[in-house]
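User: ok so my PI wants both of these folded by tonight, can you help

Assistant: No problem, let's get them done. Here's the first:
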Amino acid sequence: MTKKKYLVTSALIYANGSMHIGHLLEYIQTDIFVRFLRLTGEDVIYVCADDMHGTPIQVNAEKQGITPKEFALKFHQEHKEDFSRFLISFDVYSHTDTPENKKFTDLFFEELNKKGYIYEKEIPVMYCPKCRRYLPDRFVKGICPKCGAPDQYGDVCEKCGATYDIFELKEPRCVICGEKPEKRESKHFFFKLSAFTDDLNKWLNENKGLQPEIVNYVKGWIKKGLKDWCISRDAPYFGFPVPNTENKFFYVWFDAPIGYISSTEKFCKDKGLDALKDYWKNDRCEIIHFIGKDIVYFHFLFWPAMLMGAEFNLPKSIIVHGYVTVGKEKMSKSRGTLIKAKEFAEKFNPELLRFYYASLLSRKLNDVDFTEEEFKHVINSELVGNVANFCYRVLSFLNKNLASTIGKFSENHRVITECKKEFNKIKEHYQNLNFRDAVKHILKVASLGNAYFQKEEPWKVIKEDVCKAHEVVSICANIVKNLSILLQPILPRFSSALEKQLNLSGLRWSDLGFNLKDHVINKAEIILRKV
């Protein structure tokens, strides 16, 4: 039987500004999962891209006197550098303004149109007479018609999550100039989302890879009745032109998720693979999306309906995470709680944020709070105090007292049995995306090693019984090896440094155990220090 494949994606970050640590949560979460799959020998690729189209990019580019593509590519490059700092291991990181993405966008439109899922109709649109331009939803702000929250976008309320028609918005204003826009008529293309009501319900009911609380939330929207979706925008607009039209462009949310497919195509190009046969139309491939809770509507309704209509495979799982708050407050530039990725990396070792997030992340839809005090406490007491210090203590003891050699030992020790019990639990937690619990059990392995080392006191025993002391330290060195494997998805650089000190390379999940004997290690060095 052909081996199962995994195609894993994170949501496409918008190429309109610098990345902050709130953005990074999702990519770190995805990367930990992908690295775990690779470690266990699975066939997995991780693809992503920058979302480069839309009015915000166009307007900001105009302000700077450059083309929208130049503007977006500047942030695309910056994002790639930030991802590299935080060790995000994409197989491909592309963007949506590529020939591949245009090809698949046109293909989707053609397929959906052919099957009768696309139609045209005249609709009222917002137009700013002062700016002399049509205004998309995100360029009109006002009061939410559902909950009354001020300063909300023309299509969705960030406070209550409601979606609505732009003309339902109270006290609308143009976000560029602040003037009240006027109503005009324009012909646009619509996707028949309403035609997929039954199929979407079936998919939600049958798919056990979706979070129950999100499924219930989405079903609430379906129950209210799905509205057909306008997939075009008037010029001026930075995006792909709708075929055989003048001055009409695909709405950014139509071509953005297609970026998952075009990025897969980029990956396949030089590898003798086919994006559709091997991934998007292959029943042996499991597609997994990671997204934030702010884009649930698009990923649980529009995107699956588009895939159904164009006869592509649907995702098996869509993992939704909460927001990152700073001291329980939403990140805000004006309040000084917006922490840019680059600034964080200049102040701290970026790998430490991976551990902090992992220690808080579960499959549940919870917000993750960042405070510098709590961050320092978790790193200093748990990672450095418990794990890193134990590793250095054991390996440096071998260097100084036992000719840097891991010796023989009996595997009947209680500490070995206790550690082995933890391995399966940790694997299960990684598989189920309960990284918080995986971290707890990894810390337990380190604690077992620390307690055993302290209890046996090899620094005293060696004076009378070198063989006994050597056995104790050799068992502990095997615990160090196991920690380097268990932590590899979360702390790849730390694990790699431990491997080097152990004089090993390419450790896999299958190397867990206590079989490292008669082995000479390299010089131990302190890898992590307290923040």
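One down. Here's the second:
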Amino acid sequence: MINLRSALRNMGLAAALLLAACGPAATPPPNSPDPIASATRPAAPPTAAPAPTRAPAVAVPVQPLGAGLPAGTDGLPWWNDTVFYEIFVRSFQDSDGDGIGDFNGLISRLDYLNDGDPTTTADLGVTGLWLMPIHPSPSYHGYDVLDYYAVNPQYGTLDDFRRLLDEAHRRGIRVLIDWVPNHTSSRHPWFQAAQDPASEYRDWYVWSADPPTSQGWHRKGTGEFYYGRFWSEMPDLNYANPAVTEQMRDVARFWLEDVGVDGFRIDAIKHLYEDGTTVEHVDATFAWLREFRPFYKGVNPQALMIGEVWDSSLRVDDYVQGDGLDLAFSFDLAYGFLQSARSGRAAQALLTLEQDLGVFRPGQFAPFLANHDQNRVMSVLRGNVDQARSAAAMLLTAPGAPFLYYGEEIGMLGEKPDELIRAPMQWSAEANAGFTSAAAPWERVNADYAEKNVAAQTADPASLLSLYRDLIRLRSTHAALRVGETYLVEASRPGLYALVRASRSEAVLVLINLGQAPVEDYTLDLAAGPLVGAQQLAPLYGGAPAALLEASPSGGFADFQPLPEVPAYGIYLWQLQPVR
């Protein structure tokens, strides 16, 4: 038998974590909006595999989420009861025929994401959204902000956005927006004013009269240099100036209190402060977060702050311990899931999951597979749908608060440059994939849209979309999958990935064959766990097992074989029910 823990100890992370860069455009598009005239806070407006075998009802009662905004299960925050969906508004749905997605287009597609009725099965079932930057910007991506108190006019008005919030909340969907506090656009009025040494905004940015010896510095026509970590058109704000923090607190209050968003995804948080040539993980950044937390929790105690810290989990954890961020993304786990899906071997995924369980506070990390800065899952997996199914199953049965990038549920392709991994959503085989009625969208639609789209997959029980819907629904209705403790199960064959997830009310056994061949001669072992006595395995996904599970005195099990054969790429979830 392969000893998983020995194997894990002997393995190291092979991922070379790339520097996080929210890919800037080389130059602003020719139709960029003019810089705004003012950057002050506006007055508050008036309120305005084979097809799955579906299982019979299980004996243990569970709590469906669906409509409403639940507070959380088993003492964990609400985000642990949430599956989040990342959306690039520009690419999701165009409502006015200009080739650019907008708020009203997104509203028209909310029922696809969650129709608010937990008894229906046609919606995806997500209960959280993360919207990439929605502020005015001279670039298509929006990470160089012109006005933190406004929305991109290409997307609609602030009233349109408020209506989006209302419609999302009515369906039980919380909404996060991207917040970019590290830098502004070079066209922002603050930076325009800061170029005058006598301006009160001068110290809002970082300047040097001498030619710097490190990267990230850019020269102005005056001969002076300013610091911009990511791009010359993205000058970094100077948080050593208390006025910058005061302004950004006002920005956060405006969106949380006046507008009503449910939180922020904070971009590039590890670069907030610099200390000489040290440009990430500076002590002052952690001190800033410790001071910022009581502020935003005072505005809205339920607000979520999730940070982008593109680094090893061992470093990421520093941002969520104590009085830091609520959540941070696990880039290690994303790598582990995809590596295991590609290789057909479970060890890398289990290694990184074991690491994260030991590093983060219970459930306080965000697993994902890919995001807007990375090649899409289906491209990484070279178009292998079976491997994409395996990756989805690992993600949606994992602890934490999972995030899904738009289009991954139908297997959209996309490789760098960034525009191609942010292409329009593929809704149908109609012109431009049903994204827009314009002659041409802002970015070309993938060539495979006629075959790969929501309409083609929505009624097919064996489609990738159906798998995502089924697994999200199972996660939403089974506390064990959302907030349960995680027990790694050792399998005697390297292609088998197995977990037990156990909450106060139930336990679920997860078994996935990551390989392209069926597995017959295998056993599953759990040295210690939460189980007592004999357990009946009630099928939730994949089919009925052939055996009872006998728990050991330590609450685990030994030499267990639930099925005589686990098919290639087979995905199974069973609820463990004590035999009385």
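Residues 1-40, 42-70 have pLDDT under 50 and may be disordered. The CA atoms of residues 490 and 525 lie 5 Å apart. Good luck tonight!
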